[in-house]
Amino acid sequence: MEDRKTFRDPSYYKNRELSWIQFNDRILGEARDKSNLLFERLKFLSITASNLDEFFMVRVASLKDMVNAGYNKKDIAGMTPQEQLTELNKVTHDLVQTQYSTYKRSLLPLLAQNHLKVIERHEDLTEAEGAYVDAYFADNVYPVLTPMAVDSSRPFPLIRNKSLNIGALLQKKDDKDDVEFATVQVPSVLARIVPIPSEHKESKTVILLEEIIERNIQKLFLNYRVICAHPFRIMRNADLTLDEEEAADLLKEIEKQLKKRQWGQAIRLEVENNIDKRLLKIIKKELSITEEEIYYIDGPLDLTFLMKMYGLEGFEHLKIGKHIPQPVLELPSDKNIFEQIRKSDILLHHPYQSFAPVVDFIRTAAKDPDVLAIKQTLYRVSGNSPIIAALAQAAENGKQVSVLVELKARFDEENNIVWAKMLEKAGCHVIYGLVGLKTHSKITLVVRREEDGIRRYVHLGTGNYNDATAKLYTDLGLLTCREDIGEDATAVFNMLSGYSEPLTWNKLSLAPLWLKDKFLYLIEREKEHAKVGEAAHIIAKMNSLCDEDIIAALYEASAAGVKIDLIVRGICSLKVGIPGVSENITVRSIVGNFLEHSRIFYFENGGREEIYLGSADWMPRNLERRVEILFPIERKELKEKVKHILDGQLKDTLKAHVLQPSGDYEKVDRRGKVLYCSQEAFVQEARLEAEQNKEEGNQRVFIPETHIEVE
Question: Which of 12, 317, 484, 515 has the most CB atoms around its CB within 10 Å?
Answer without folding.
Answer: 515
